[in-house]
Amino acid sequence: MTRFTVNNQAVEYRLDPATPLLWALRDASNLTGTKYGCGTGHCGACTVDVDGRAIRSCSMTIAEAEGTYVTTIEGLSRERSHPLQLAFLADNLVQCGFCVPGIIMAASVLLRRNPDPDEATIRGAITNLCRCGIYPRLVEAIERAARAARGEEVIAAGARPGIDPADAARVVPALVPPKLSDR
Question: Which letter does DSSP use for residue 41 in this model?
Answer without folding.
Answer: S
